[in-house]
């Protein structure tokens, strides 16, 4: 039997620790410690165990389903337990080449409920998707939920996380809102390399992107949403209706998540990325509000303006006729050369979804060319064929990198044979 058993759930003021055991061939997918934790900026000691069980199950359910395993818990919230079948079916429809079996077994389901006292909470990173969703729902006065899920056994200091918190706390204060801050190890408690080794090819996607991150991020917020009696948790869409892609955060999955009297809504699926840029830019033009600053560079303390996500967002803002510096991007003086040099180095790594998003910005730039303030950029980027350039760059990369590697390996082998014979 392949079994994941929740042995002990320990609540200490604002923290919950899960200690579990694993049986069967799925042991290779787990680290030695068998430990998951969440720490909040609210005391959760009075939250029912059946609610606190939700994040544990949510983080492991997709793994149990694809490995035909059983998750065993003593109790769980009835609404969440009932929605698992629909979530499982949504995954199965997304990944038809993999069988989603497995199950969650419990001794007791508790019918929790509450009368909502707050309309909304929102997963808020400060990035483009999150900011555009906030602008749309700000009248609901949402709590802003920001998470860091990459700790190990205990909370470790991270300059990036500290910068994230500073940014979202300032944002909340300016808007008269409250923050929900969550530390966890949900991104690092599994042996992801082994999961991807066995399932990457079958799924056509990684464990984190394809199956894990949506449920991990949303479920982390559920104990606080229950505690504060929040009616709805919003999570901003990364993609949009009409663009078919595999992703763990998808409306067919997120919108099925239920807990006690609460629900989840995958927001902004009706807008593509460039339309979201326009929402943010228009809001800035209307209010001249400095809180329109974007924080898209999640691996650095500030927007580096060198990574793909930064440069893609810069292009989107330029396409709307604005200066990216007004939105938190310290761009170089010659932006045209900067972007051209970036593409020469990085175009080979572009995925189809990235090319699609860049093309949306370029299309808008062409429509809005009279308002583009970086005229030198218009001289070449409107005719830039991303797919063709990617192919050319890949060929060049393979010629310059691949063959020398093969030559070096052959040379090493021949030298070893020569030494052995000598």
Please outline what is shown here:
This protein has 422 residues and is of the alpha/beta class.
Textual characterization of the structure:
The chain folds into 2 domains: 3-267, no CATH class; 273-384, no CATH class. Helices cover 46% and strands 18% of the residues. It has helices at 49-66, 78-94, 128-137, 159-175, 192-203, 207-227, 251-254, 273-287, 308-319, 335-346, 352-367, 375-378, 386-421; strands spanning 3-12, 15-23, 35-40, 70-77, 103-110, 118-123, 143-148, 179-184, 230-236, 258-259, 262-267. The chain is α/β, with parallel strands linked by helices. Strand 4, helix 2 and strand 5 form a beta-alpha-beta unit. It has 13 helices and 11 strands. Helix 1 (49-66) packs parallel to helix 2, helix 3 (128-137) packs across helix 8 and helix 9 packs parallel to helix 11 (352-367).
